[in-house]
Design brief:
By secondary structure, this protein is mainly α. The chain has one domain. Helices cover 47% and strands 7% of the residues. It has 7 helices and 4 strands. The chain has a two-stranded antiparallel ribbon. Strand 1 and strand 2 form a beta hairpin. The radius of gyration is 14 Å and the shape is globular. This is DUF4129 domain-containing protein.
Length: 153
């Protein structure tokens, strides 16, 4: 088990212990603190890459998928806050078990369903799939290296 995250500063929100505790239990097959730790690690990786001028679609997909699974509210730098979007379908509907499974199945077919997006956003499909496989299906390793766990992408 990963260390529990009490407060993690994220690009558009702060995940507090209370927010992590409010993640619907049916949305995850991993401890909520593990999801928060992976989310924070993906945020860090994305930020570090952006400082080097690199757009890391894989890390961005991990962040987006974690936010959606957590039913987080995205607070953009401009515009109104809104529910996080699902990583593949981009629905703003809050994640729940049946919708998460549908999103997982769509992620497995991402390149077939969204060929232009797959070309424009290299690594996005892999990041979404790896996160859903780990957090939703409870299979494999975390999608981002956290506390010595191996990186999937």
């Amino acid at each position: 088990m990963l260390l529990s995250v009490v407060a993690v500063t994220l690009s558009c929100m702060v995940a507090t212990a209370e927010q992590v505790a409010r993640i619907p239990a049916g949305n995850l097959r991993v401890p909520p603190g593990d999801l928060a730790a992976v989310w924070a690690a993906a945020e860090r990786r994305s930020f570090e890459q952006s400082k080097r001028g690199v757009l890391d679609w894989y890390a961005a997909a991990v962040v987006a998928t974690c936010m959606w699974l957590a039913c987080a509210i995205y607070r953009p730098p401009w515009g109104r806050p809104h529910p996080a979007e699902a990583p593949v379908s981009r629905t703003r509907a809050s994640a729940y078990e049946e919708l998460i499974e549908a999103e997982y199945l769509a992620a497995e077919r991402f390149e077939e369903l969204h060929p232009r997006r797959a070309e424009r956003e290299p690594g996005w499909a892999e990041g979404a799939r790896a996160t859903l496989r780990w957090a939703w299906r409870g299979e494999g390793t975390p999608p981002i290296d956290v506390e010595g766990w191996s990186v999937a992408g």
